[in-house]
Structure formats: structure tokens, C-alpha cells
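Notes from the 1:1 (GR / supervisor)

We went over the backlog. Supervisor wanted to see one worked example end to end before approving the batch request, so GR pasted a single chain during the call. The sequence is below; no edits were made to it. Supervisor asked that the structure be written out right there so they could see what the output format looks like.
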Amino acid sequence: MLYLCYDYIAATITLCFVPDSDTENSICSQTKGPMKAGGESSHIDTTSILLDEKTTNTTRIETNEAMSITKDTTMLQETKEQQIECIFRQVTDMGNVPYYQETKQFDEAKMHFEKGSRLVILSGPPGAGKTQTAHTYCNKMKEQYSIVAKFVATDESSLLNSLKGLLKHLKVPLDTDENENMIIGSLLKSLSDYLNHSSRKKCLYLILIDDIHVLNQNLIEIIRLLEFVEHLKFLLTTYDSTLKNSYVTACMVYHNGMDEKECLQFFKKSDYFKNINPCDIKEIANKIGTIPLVLNCARQFIEATGININSYLEKFKEDEDSKTLENIVSLQNPFYRYSLLQSQRIPLEQIQKKIDPTLWKVFMLLPLLNYSLISNEVLKACCYHLSKDQQLSIDDMIYHCRCFSLCHNLEIPKHGLSVLKNNDVHNNSSWSFHTVTILALKWMDASYGSQEERKHKQERLKLLLKVFSFEINIDTRDNFTLERNLLFLSHAIKILDRCEQMNQEEKVDDEVRMYLAYLNCAVGKTFLFEGTDVKLAHKYLMTSRNLCLAIIGEESSLTKDLCLYPNIVPESDFERPDFGKIEKTFKSFCNKEIEEFLIKEFILSKRRSPGEISLLQQESVNKTLCANGYLGDNEYKHLVDIGLAIPHTDYKKLFLIELFLHILFENGRAFNELRVITDKKVNVRQICNFEFYTCNEFCKLLKASDISKDYKILLFLDNDRSVKSYIRWTGKTHISDDEIDLDIKNIDDLSKSNVRILHDFGIAKMSPKTNDHHVCMCCKLLLKNMVRKLESEKNENTKMEIFKKGKNVVEDFLKRIEINKDKGWLALPLFYIQCGNYLLLSTDEKTLEQALNLFDGAITAERNRQDKLTRFTWEGLRAYDRNANFRGVPVNLPEPLEPQWPLTGFQQLRPEHKIMLPKLTTEQIEGYFLYRMAEDRQASGDIKALEKGKKCLNHIEF
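Structure output shown during the call:
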């Protein structure tokens, strides 16, 4: 057994230390009975751990050999520092509002945890400071916990996404081969196994669950983790005071507002109120209440406007309009209800008078968005598409909101990527609006509760549907577009959910369906390229697929048998698609024309990525083209004239077909990913081939049609990658040399052509003259065909010549794309792996060394991109491990090379470790791989590699 965990105490002593408290209750509560670790129990002798009641900082440990009591405190402190390992602390998402006033509730919560409680509930009305207290505790006490995480429990979906997010940060593989109703149990089992692993037996964990509305089933299951993970604590925030009834051992901390001393301290923090009579401050508290949110708004408004205190308090007199509040917010205490919302409405009315009407329209969109975390980019996009006015800035809106403390700044979540300029303060900003602020906006909506309300809501939904279709890029192959898509993702998902509800209630027109189909596809591709939830990517792609077919009114085998992934029956016989039905569907797409004004609106409103803008500027020799990220009408006409854009009058016939090709191709890729993590491999592979085959046939039909004679689309090149799937479906087991030579010639010509332009949704996307990515995609296809030619060739001399040509292709690729120059291209690691696999066909030592360096490059690129173990990282590690010890020996690569994920088992593990695989996390498997590499290289004297491998295995137990 390989065991590299370091023990700081002598082997004859078993010490369990919980670094959250020095009190008797805490130590005793954590040392009674067996402790679970890695799924096994380890007994702790509680009789050998005693507590000196006279001092909480001295612990006496009795063993067979007495230890000096004078050294106890020092040893315990050193052990404590060594044990508090930082694994993941999500405190960047836990900021406090400006001028935050710490209240007595913080001390109460801290006291409960110190006394050994593992479940503390912060309760109180909205705006009472529950979340701020929780954030303060997490920030101040973070050094005592190895993991500090935050879950948002507004609804079951938010809670599930938070849980998935934590597992991704911890690099724990997500088991997606589950029904939606069962997925929570699977995720919690994975988290429990991770937290209980014996290498973390000295760690302590804290999870904050914020904004609990109701005790739903997901929440119940998550809190049940307390039964299985002994070192876990929960901190909950809710306005439901009855939540404690469900957990008798929980400690409740009720937030009922500030006391008199805290109110005075809070107001005196401001220079404006230092000379104000304390009696006036007390009067404010008496009239409007002591809820922190209300007092903060009062202080900010009085200071910002200079209004007299009595005049401000006059605004809190209830009027007829206040009666509508019962329809907006339900609180037991009417006093809270009115004072809370009125405190927000007063500054909102002031802002409405000062800002541009378009900016106020942006304000009214907030209730439909994820207002708890919204970036400047999202607000800017909404503002632009509402007005098309480049001079109008959302900075004015945010400035007034911050003046009145209606929002506060949050750090943009880190996805392992960086796309926004560091020196641009606004671009790096995200904002959080309080729920009460949003309720006040609803109260101010003149149509609220009337018959016009539904109509206004639908208009806003349609606007946002268009905005996110324009802003989210369907091409997510580089870091910039992927990271920018992620800024919009949570908002887009919320809009899609609301639109789905709208679809169920009433019939929608083809315009809405078109944008729904595009946005679902873009969201699905974003999830697919992010690589964190392939099942969810597949769900959105399937929705988009069905919407496209619904637009043309097509009901055929293209949809009849193709169900969502989890519902595939292993025993079912999936029927091969019929070409006649595919051709019929294609003709239906050709006959369906989108309205010209919709196509033109889409092209002119679509946000262009920096790479797209650079290509258009170089090809058109116009450095100011599309300077603001959007095409102008005259710019579009100019691009049409020089062949860099398709006229909207022609493209109206092509839009739906191109979108459907994207869906088929990406859904096939999603099935390809899903088949390696399921026991339904045969059926999933069949459906994967179904999608690729349909995509192939659509491409053939489109290439042969009149519409494609003058315009070539990017999907033609992507589609050529799925030739092997086409071969399976047609039953061809062998491709002739002539066919291979023709493929090589066509791709070679495509890579060298100086006139061929590939379009993507009506605009030039790739050109060999200005776009190295395009040529590298051709290199990838050339290598595939070179391998086929080598497989069919028997003459050794001819083989050598073919291999040299392929090696030249690899060298050309490496010259064009270097990892230091282009870290942002998401397909780069896969290309490195393919080039490495090709070079392994050689017997030359230097060539084999170059292949290993390419595998290492793929791994490095993925690690730089994000901190999770992706499929490309896994393939790179697998290829490196499999081939590192075959120096100078030709390697038989499996064909096709399939990704091997941790939970599927894999052939290179040593027999004694195979049985342990399902229990390992991805970080442990990665460490194992690196150690294996080090062992392989040790024979050649590579001591540094051995040290690197051993370091990766530190604290990992098999």
C-alpha cells in the first residue's frame, strides 16, 4: 500500500484535534466514537485526551510514556497551524456592504459554534443583516477552516448549481449518469467521500447556505451531510423563523434590528452625522425601524441629498399606494413590510428623475435577471440594445445606485480565464442588488397588478431574449468568447426558463422560436466547451434541435426516437436514419425563409469577438470597422460588396439550416462525451453516429444546393471531422487510397487558398490569409488522413515518405500556434495531443521526446485555463503515461482514441489499484499519473521528474 500522509505525532499516539475551539464541549463532541475517513472507521481513544478545566489553552495528552505538561501549549499551537490546510475558501463572494455595522448577532453565532454547535440558523426579516453577519463570520474565521463555501438557496435549482460549483472547485468528478431526481444524492455522496478522505481527517469545513425561502428536499438532503461528515458545520440564513422546528439541535440567532448603541455607532461612522443630535438619530430609528437595510438607506439618502430629517420621515407616511404591498411581499409584520420597501422606493424615485429614461428601462429589467450578481457587461449590453446610443453609459445609473447604497460591488467569479482589461475598473465590476430593492421596483411599476402587467413582462422577456442571443457567441473556441459568455450565462438561463413557462401558457410566433433556438444552442455550446456539465449542454442542444424542427413543422424520425440522454433504454434498438427523410427535412428548411428584417437585425445587432473584428478589419483594410463591437448598416453593405458578408436577402434561406447544422454537430459531440460515462455505451454511440450522419448528409445537400455556390460556411470544415461516423453508417470498412489522396488534396488546397472565405451566420469568420486557426484545423484533418494512408500502405519506404509529410504538417502547426502566444484557443490542447500521437508512430528518440513534450503542453494549457481536470488534461496524462516508457519502440495506438474519464476505469492502472479507482478524486488520479511518469523517468536519471511526481502524491493515499 502506498501511503504518503505525514504524521506529526509519534506513531504510538493517536491525536485528533479540531481547530474550531479550545473548549471542552468542542473537543469532547468531536472525539466520541469512531470517525469516518475514506469510508472506513478509525477509533479514537477518548480516555487519552483530557482537558484541563482551569485553562482552555492547555491540553494534557496521557500516553504510556508521560509527556511534559509545559510543552503542551506550544505543541498544540504548532499542530493547529500545521493542520489548517487551505483547500478552498470562497470568501471573495462574501463581501460586506460599505459602512457595515457589526452587530451582537455576530458574537452570538460565533459563541454557538465555539460551544460545539454544528448547525446555526440566522433568522430575521429581509434586510435585517443576516447575510452580512454570515459573511463577517466566514471572513473572520476562515483561517480555522480548510473549506469555506457558499450555497445560494433561493430555489432548488440555485442550490443544486451551488453544490455542483463546489464539487468543480474541489476537482471532484460529477456523476452525470443519473436521473434529475436522483442527481442530488449522487453529488452529495461524492462530496461526502471527498470530505471524509483519510488525508483530510484533520480538516474542518464550513458551508454557508444563504437566502433560504422554504425547506425543500434538496436542502434537507444537503443538511443531512452532518450525519456523515463529522468535521462539517452549516451556517444558514432565512426569514422563516419556523425552520428551527425541523432541527431541534440547531441554534437560532434572530436578527430583529440594531440596538440603540449600534444605531448610534452606525450613523456616527459618517462625517455628516457626527454633529447630528443623538436624539434625532433615535427619532429616525423609532419612526422607520432599526432594520440595517432601512437605516443604511436613510443615512445614505439624507447625506446625499441634504434633506432635513423631518422631511425625510414625512415620506414614510402610509398612503393609498401602500395597500398594494400585500401583493408584492408577504411579511407577518406590516411595519417591516412598509418601511422596508419605502426605504428603497424613496431613493429609486430620486434616481428615476435624474437618469436618462433608457437607463430607467434597464432598471426595470432587473427583476427578470439574476440581480444578485450582474456584471457591467450585461448592463451595458441591455443599455445598447435598448437605445443603440453609444454615448449613453450605465455608469450614471450605477453611480446613483451606489450613492444611495442600492447595490454593492462584487468580484467577478473566477473561471480560470481572464478576458477583461485589468486597468478598466468598470469592466471588472459586478453588482449585487438586494431582493427588497427589486420588490420596490415592482411596486413602482405602474402596470403591476393590472391587465397590462402581463403584456409588459412579455415585451421585456422578448427584449432580453434578443439581447442574450446577440451577446452570447455561438463560437466558444477561444477564452475571450467563453469567458464573456459565462458573464451572461446565468441571466440567459433564467430568461430561457421564463420563456419556457410562457410557451406552455400560450403559443409563440416563429420570431421568438428562432431566438429561442439560437440562444439554447449558444448556451449548450458554452456548457460543452466549458466542459463542466455535458449533460446540461446536451439538454439545451436538444431543446434547440426540437425548436428548429418545430419552426418548419417537421415531424419525422429525426425527432421521434431521439430522446434525452438519461432516458435512453440500454436494450432498445436504435434505428439507422433514413436518407429520404433527411432529404425531406432539408427541403423543408430550404422552403422556410426567415423575415428579411429579422435577419438584418440579427447581423447588425450581433456582438463580434476581437478575433472576428480583427479578421474583418484586415480583410477589408479598414482599421475602424466594427470599432464598437457591432456592425453599422453602411459597414455591412461594404462587407457585402467585397464578399466578406452574405446579403440578408440571400441569407434568409440559410440561417435555419446553418443553425441546425451547428446543433447536430455539437449534439453529436455531446453524445460522444456522454458515452464514456454511461453503461448505455452502445445506444449512446448509435445516437452519436445518428447526429453526425445527419449532419454529414445535410452538409452534402447544402454543398450541392444553389444557395451554397457563392458562399461557404464554417461548418463545412467542422463537419469533415466526423467522416469516421459516416463510414460506420454507410457500412464502408475501407477507404481507397484514391479517396484518401483526394481528401488530402482538397484539405491542402483549402489551407493554402488565398481567396476562400468561410462564413459563420452571414459574416466572414475564417480566412487562410489572416487566420492561423483555420490553417491549423486543416492541419488536424491532414494528419487524420496521413494516419489512414499509413495504415493502408505496406511499402516501408513509402511509409517513411508519408510520415515525413505528416511531420512537416506538425512542424507547420507548431510554427503557427505556440502555447505561449495563444493560450486562449480552447481546441489547442486537443491538437497538441493529436500531433503527439502522430509523432509516436516514429522510432526516432528525438521525435518521441517531442511527442511527450506535446502531451505535456496539452496538460499545461488546460491547467492554465482552469483548475479542474478536463477531458483534454486526462487524455494528455493518459497518453503521456502510456507512452513515456516506450522509448524507441513503435506504439500501437488504440483506434479511435477515446477519452477515459476517472469513473469509467482505465487500463493503465496497476491491478492492485484498479479496485480503488471509483473512490479516488481526479486530483488523486492526476497525482498517481505524475508519480508513474516520475518512476518511468527515474531509470533515465531524471531526478527532478521523480521529485515532482512524489510531491503530487503528498497527502494522497491509495
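Supervisor's comment: The chain has a mean pLDDT of 73.
Batch request approved.
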